[in-house]
Amino acid sequence: MPGLKTVEALQFLHTELSKVVDEHTRTQTKEKWRHFLSAMRGKSTCFSPFSLVCLLVISVSLFIAAFVDSDGAASDNKWVQRSYPMLHLPISPCISLQWIMRDGYLVNLPHPLLVEGDVIIMRPGLSAPGDCKSVDDDTCLVHGEVFSGSSPQAKGDGPQPRVPMSSKKFILQETPILKNFRYSPFKVYFLNAD
């Protein structure tokens, strides 16, 4: 199973995130935004008008730099296999990476770039990035469930040779990053601020 193409996956992620942002925008009222802005202007915040302007200028500069090559020509931004993190990077507590099939290649992707319909490779001992269903059989994993690989082998007296546990292909049934936006504390702040 070749998995999704990078362009398709990023377009899907953009569409889904746009829907979440639009839904959030519709639920907010002008009064709640005024309350937020007045809280930002207070003396207890680290944001000042000057720091917000600097942050905006830096963000725009980085955005422009991401789409322009060093010679000043606009780049194609084609993702190739070397654009992804190496497959055998050690597990890090700072970033969660997942083996995934993209553009017909096995690549390593951070969880926020995973989308519904992606073919992921679950290795034994890793937790599922979202709800997913096995490609080969009816096995299902829920978000956070640890994949155990094959069934335990029979125990005998003394040392026994063991067959290594194998990885298994699953299809994601949800886009994991959307949960972060739908249930974020920022949204809860707005819903409870009156």
TrEMBL record:
InterPro entries referenced in this protein's UniProt entry, alphabetically: TMEM94
Keywords: Membrane, Transmembrane, Transmembrane helix
Membrane-spanning parts: 47-68
Listed name of the protein: Cation-transporting P-type ATPase N-terminal domain-containing protein
Organism field: Elysia marginata
